[in-house]
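User: Hi! I'm a student and our assignment asks us to look at how structure tokens line up with a sequence. Could you show me two examples?

Assistant: Happy to help. In each example below, the sequence comes first and the structure tokens follow. Example one:
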Amino acid sequence: MSHDCAIIGVGMTPFGKFPDQSVRMLASAAVQAALADAGIAPAQVDQVYFGNAVAGLITGQEMVRGQAALRFTGLAGKPVVNVENACATGSTAFWLAYNAVRGGQADVAIAIGAERMTHEDKAVSLGALAKAVDLEEEVPKHVGSGSGSIFMDIYAEKTRKYMAATGATREDIAQIVVKSRHAASLNPVAQFRSETTVESVLGSRVISDPLTLQMCSSIGDGAAAVVLCSPAFARKLGVSQPVWVGGSVMVSGTPNGELEHCSIRSTLGVYEKAGVLPKDIHVAELHDASAPAELMYYESLGLCEPGEGPTLLRSGATGLNGRISVNPSGGLLSKGHPIGATGVAQVVELTQQLRGQSGPRQREGAKVALASNNGGSLGKDGAAGVATILHV
């Protein structure tokens, strides 16, 4: 695996609902934490990639989101690239920073994802999320009409088909939530830190059959930041054991289904780029915007054979410190999903796992990690997919 780009600093805020916190406040805290972790000053950063998806719709801030949010971080005056790519916004910012470093454009780059999704009128927040589709595309009338969420209706439809094809049960899907909440209960920055039960998950309000409230990721606020650098800078700084980026691949969707789903193409692409196989992965952060998505990703990303997602879950192999620990942060379901921050937060969690800093969530002996993050919907496909391999 390659050693041409290192991660030397990570930081993030707690995720949750913080109506008194602005994007600027959240981003500033994450940047400060990441720079402190790296042991560098803002002046040493060459390029800045700032991810935010919905500020324009929630607060009205447009066009110069990064420059405004980072005004008091010491990064003013640096090249700031504003990034927006639906739920893959943060991972797209990371992908850009990675390519800037490995391509020799920057010795040090920082990728930031920050989002404030809460609004006094929840319809505004849901309406912002609903913009992550092609608005000129005709959508079936039942999508978004019942749940209020276009994406949860889409997930529900996929889930019904998946259950029919594999024999997955509602209890299996609820068990994903139980696993997720248990991990989050051990994560001090997670949004939902109370454990739950299968009965509680199944008894919560139905959002879009068969999805119940606890099976769906929530609206939330938060920020995360990652400092990347060249091997030469890491040596100069005296970093003895950096986390290396083995590869990062981004693709866009093909709306008529000409190619496989963007999540599959990005992940298979990064396996090839990094020279790893699914069996080599020790810990993974996957895009569980709804609980059944985790089961589906087990299969589509090669972590098990087609149709074996429920069996893999029941085996315990994807639990904390399992053979492949999946979403030890709590994932989008429980750590939270402030959409512009999610992709960067995945990298924060995996970096800490590879450093052995995850405490009771630690996957012992973790050497290779996978982040898979997707965004938006375009016809039969997602709109964007980003997958990244990290290693030590």
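Example two works the same way, sequence first and then tokens:
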Amino acid sequence: MTVESIGTVRRWSMLGIALAATTSANVFINGAAFLIPTLHTERGLDLAAAGLLSAMPSFGLVLTLIAWGYVVDRVGERFVLTVGSALIAAAAFAAAAADSLFAVGAFLLLGGMAAASSNSASGRLVVGWFPPHQRGLVMGIRQTATPLGVGLGALVIPRLAESHGVSAALLFPAVVCAVSAVVCLIAVVDPPRPPRSEAPVEHLANPYRGSALLLRIHAVSVLLVVPQAVVWTFTLVWLMTDHGWSAASAGAVVTVAQVFGTAGRIAAGYWSDRLGERLKPIRWIAAAAAVSMALLALSDWVGSPVSVALVVIASVITVSDNGLAFTAIAEIAGPFWSGRALGTQNTSQHLASAAAAPLFGALIGVAGYPAAFAASAVLPLLAVPLVPANSPTQR
């Protein structure tokens, strides 16, 4: 093999490892949502309480995302991915062994704190190994880790919970994260970057000073993540309780929606590479998300079976912007600030996502699913004018 081909193989292998590590973390982060039907029926928790328990990993995430980003900026991606994955596995095993729901919630919180490691480190690993004209596509591929993790969790966790209980279901994310830790330890190579003493001044400068560009992208992403969280968290229980579907059938629909969501993220990333623009596609996706959620609310309110198809469509559209925002932020922040900038992005998104579960669970309990879908349609509509017009600098 030539030196160039070896470099190409290495870049794509790093993408594959980043994708696998982040998928494993997302099985843990989002898999707790698929315990809601079992917690609701067997443990007697209402939707608000079950939604709060399922949000514990996301609450844990927001406590440590920026801190993990700082470690990535200072130490590197391999260390963070390896240690973080091992800590997720340990927390998941502990949650599976816990007797009380309080202890389960505590370990889910700790696991979420560990899972924050993969978000900043895997994004940095991908951006660091690929040139600007490929970053939209490859970051779109990397961002499919979230719907893939949700889909894999939906395929396995509800069945385990229904047949063997909550503890057995938690063993699944524990095992996949343990395997991920071993792979990262053996195979991850940190991307090349110059020593801080030799780096250009603009790469060392704080990208938040003198510009609101990153802050506006963070704000837009917060508004767009809420309908995504609503669809992810409640589609399974909505299909089972309101439509009478079995856990297996409802889980299969969620899995299919997440698989289509992976294609949406990749297509959005490829689109941005062809345009040479990260932010313009986000504006179009925000408008489409508002429309799809509004149509879902209307169809569910009138009792139309079209609502099932629309929830799949909404699942695809609402996840399509994430890779674009992550790529833009990494390019603007540069190699010495992108860990913290991506940590800030993840902190704001996951805080909004974690808050959405109990808040919208309570809204569903009071006003029903159509009201919740309609409320979540307003937020992407508000995001459209907030999307910055100027393109990020590619580094």
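Here is something you could point out in your write-up. The chain has one domain: 7-186+205-386.
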